[in-house]
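Render Deacetylase in 3D.
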Amino acid sequence: MMTAYISHKDCELHDMGAGHPECPRRLSAIRDYLMERQLWDVLLHVDAPKIEKIHLYRVHGREYVDGIFSQFPIKQTKTLGDDMVANAHTLNAALRSAGGVCKAVDMVMNGQAANAFCAVRPPGHHAEKNRAMGFCVFSNVAVAAAYAIHQYDLDRVAIVDFDVHHGNGTENILQYDERVLFCSSFQHPYYPHTVPDQNRSNIVHTPMHAGTSSDEFRDWVLQQWMNKLHQFNPQLLLISAGFDAHHSDPLADIYLDDRDYYWLTSELKRLAENCCEGRIVSSLEGGYHLDALARSVYQHIRVLSGL
Ligand SMILES: [Zn+2]
């Protein structure tokens, strides 16, 4: 079985404005590099469908979702929330981002793909139940977790979020759902200014000081995440794959490099093979240095695809 690569041109038309780091070029940089390294042609390419509202209502407030819809169509740009600017294509892009991750869940649950990477934007992990923020409109991975639990009657879905920013939106939505284990590493103190909390059995916070090295990060993953994930024994592993903890990234101060994403993906793939027949759905979050992003995603997908 192949690795699915789920995307859509609408995700490249959403644009937050000139010079914004969360830019359309992120997706084309990834595509160009995968082509250059001959990985593009061995992936199963799938268009991300628009999600139906019913699946958004499962995690977002009905008024919030309807309120987002009511602001479109727009001709120019519009602010949807704190650090979230929309253009004419943003609603379709956001619907395809959440829809793409749910499509990926269907494909891995139905045996149509071994695993999947969703090259989508806007990202999702900062969007809360009733709030767009941090470049995010809908909480793509939380929507997909709730979708998987509902659609496939799952009891245990693990989410690993290695973006350099805390996945406050995912946590805001799923924190009281014991069917979900959420492991999140993030620079601290830093946006979105989460206060680390180690008292929740289904949430693992791994705060990282500015300047955190590869070795420190790997130790914490092994000590804080892997045993917990094995014990939880997920039926599906979702990944909020942000690559902004890379040392080249302009938005943060953590010192990971391409090889760390290879290593972490290998650890997670082995876990998924032991627990859930390798079922992994990974979705792009951050990563703002275009070359480092493209190389890191390449390493991530190289492991997923087994090449
Ligand atoms: Zn981030």
